[in-house]
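yo

u said u wanted the structure for the complex thing, so here. seqs first:
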Amino acid sequence: MQTDRIALRLRGNSEAMDLGLQLARANWLQMLPVISLGMIPIALLAALAAQWHAPLALLVIWLFKPSLDRPLLHLLSRDLLGMAGGTGWLWRQRAQWWPGLHLTSLTLFRFHPARSFTLPIWQLEGQTGQARRQRTRALGYGSAGSGLGLTLMASLFELVVVISLFALFGWLLPASIWEGLGAPGWFDPAGVHDHFWLSLAAAYAVAVLLVEPFYLGAGFGLYLNQRCRLECWDLEPALHRLAERAKARPA
Amino acid sequence: MEASSVDTRLAVETPDGIELDLIPAGPVLRAAAWLIDSVIRAGMLIGLGFVLSALGAAGIALLILAWFLINWWYPVLFEVLAGGATPGKKAFGLRVVNEDGTPVGWGASIVRNLLRQVDFLPFGYGAGLLAMHCNSRFQRLGDLAAATLVVYRDWSVTSARALPPGPAEPPPLPLAPAEQQILLTFAERGSALNPERIGELAGIMTPVTGLTGVDSAERLLAWARWLKGQAR
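structre next:
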């Protein structure tokens, strides 16, 4: 692969994830409207589920996170090739990022310990069946631990954002609003208040908006590095340059 | 306008004019290092608590003093006296340096660790996490104030692997050091690739080797062996 967007080099796993974070940072202004728009239908669905049973709102948001990743990954991968557009472009390209094990990623693979690392394989490479399983195993060799660590840390960061939001609102909002929401009774073991669950779901949605693009970016960075390791992507440009120089040399 | 290339490596110049590459470390590893340090600190306090509880009220006073020392001075002492790394950072191969790559001193270390209290707000380093993603060098607020970086201590990933045995022959054209390095890297890492991909990469060099696919790769490997023999 030829790209000027990132400096390709064989890196350690942690540094590879850092590269992904930097790539996500460089694309953040493009990613934020996309993931925010994607959150709207999920939030509506969560609100519907909450009518029945309030804690389900959290579950719905959690369940559909992989769907939010898809357009973001498409954006990042096209950005490497200098072909990325805006939100409208992404919508018109939806036939390219919507399919590709979408349903499986929401069900069977929802618990995959390194889903942001494997999503590029499922979504971008398009192998099926045995070939895909072999491919996932080959690419995961030597990076599965880092992928798992990344997922654990990302969940921790989501938790940090959720509690931070609660703390911020606790400090900034007047006490009367909290009392109006029944906050003093939220942690009453006799029955946790619905308002608590709905506030928690809202904070969680914000945490997902903030953390998910970077979680996805870091996993993509790990994926790119594994391809450098297994396919020597990083050597390709230098070999081309050497061949060019040799050709230009007078015989 | 062409966007500049995204990279993790940061070129800095030390005060004595030496060019140096630093690689700032991101939040994932740093949070893990912090967790380890927290466990160590908690262990120290619990251990001290057992010992000092035997002393009654005086023991409680001492424990509060110890809590203050461990909370505020644990990172500073390790960063200044132990090569820029607390045990947690050391475990993950990280260390703290000044922005120009020099070892961190008392002033900078105290500033960056005092401001931990701000980075920690509103909870669990929420502010620090946000700050790290607002600059390209993963600096939290304490790092920005103290002009420090947390970098990877040791970041060479390519261990020199032995080349597969075979014939050696000199390359047909003089090669610059960087080009020799490319051939050597290709030869070292190529053995891990599948044959199709080796052929594809070596095919780029077909105009030079005059061969195609795997034969071209064999020729490149022979040149690499010769270069390696020269270097020895």
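The two ends of chain B are 46 Å apart (CA to CA). Chain B has two domains: 10-152, 177-231.
cya
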